[in-house]
């Protein structure tokens, strides 16, 4: 009788594992506000070109982006990443600077992904057409703390990201 129970339990375990594997594994809705999520094996360029809808979303987070150029806060336009007939995975809905990530599966997105979709320049040396030179500097902050990741920053829920282009003091 014990042999039959063990055999039955083993079969259930094997079937469960096979079912989970066939379905793509078990994924959590969030890995926490400050931890990067595991990436699905897909090229970032492929996922950035997807057009999505507000349905069948497995991963949905928000962060705020603020850009200051020479002391003036820049407006991040409403519907950045939403050209006519297509809503990209990273986009805005209004002019508040809130970025939305809505994806059909989990993927670790980076700040450069939003700038790619938006069609604007950002890296450790330039924001838009404003670049570091002998008179100007570019600073980067996440949640008020200076950060050196710039375009490679993993995007996380509830982060406040600030890019500051200013005159050297």
Structure description:
The protein is α+β, with helices and mostly antiparallel strands and 169 residues long. The chain is built from three helices and nine strands, in the order H-H-E-E-E-E-H-E-E-E-E-E. The strands form two sheets. Strands 1, 2, 3, 4, 7, 8 and 9 form a seven-stranded mixed beta sheet that branches. A two-stranded antiparallel sheet has the order 5-6.
Oligomer: single chain
Output mean pLDDT: 82
**SSE order, as H and E?**
HHEEEEHEEEEE
Radius of gyration of CA atoms, rounded to a whole number: 21 Å
H/I helix tally? 3
Shape from CA axes?
A: elongated
Largest beta sheet, briefly? 7 strands, mixed
Low-confidence stretches: 1-10, 12-41
Distance between the termini: 82 Å
Helical coverage, percent range: 10-25%
- Let me know the number of strands: 9
SS-derived structural category: alpha+beta
Give the percentage of residues in beta strands.
15-25%
What attributes characterize this protein structure?
7-stranded mixed sheet, two-stranded antiparallel sheet, 169 residues, 3 helices
Topology:
Layout: H1 2-22, H2 44-48, E1 59-69, E2 72-73, E3 90-91, E4 98-103, H3 111-118, E5 126-127, E6 130-131, E7 136-142, E8 145-146, E9 160-167
Parallel strand pairs: 1-9
Antiparallel strand pairs: 1-2, 1-4, 3-4, 5-6, 7-8, 7-9
Briefly summarize what is shown.
This protein has 169 residues and is of the alpha+beta class. The chain is built from three helices and nine strands, in the order ααββββαβββββ.
């Amino acid at each position: 009788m014990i042999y039959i129970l063990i055999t039955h339990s083993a079969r259930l375990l094997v079937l469960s594992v096979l079912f989970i594997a066939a379905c793509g594994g078990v994924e959590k809705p969030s890995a926490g506000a400050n931890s990067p999520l595991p990436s699905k094996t897909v090229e970032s360029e492929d996922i950035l070109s997807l057009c999505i809808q507000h349905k069948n979303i497995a991963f949905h987070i928000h962060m705020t982006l603020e850009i200051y150029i020479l002391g003036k806060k820049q407006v991040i336009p409403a519907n950045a990443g939403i050209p006519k007939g297509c809503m990209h995975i990273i986009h805005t809905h209004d002019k508040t600077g809130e970025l939305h990530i809505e994806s059909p599966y989990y993927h670790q997105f980076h700040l450069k992904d939003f700038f790619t979709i938006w069609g604007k320049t950002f890296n450790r040396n330039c924001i838009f057409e404003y670049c570091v030179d002998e008179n100007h500097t570019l600073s980067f902050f996440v949640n008020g703390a200076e950060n050196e990741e710039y375009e490679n920053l993993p995007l996380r829920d509830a982060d406040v990201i600030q890019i500051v282009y200013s005159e050297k003091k």
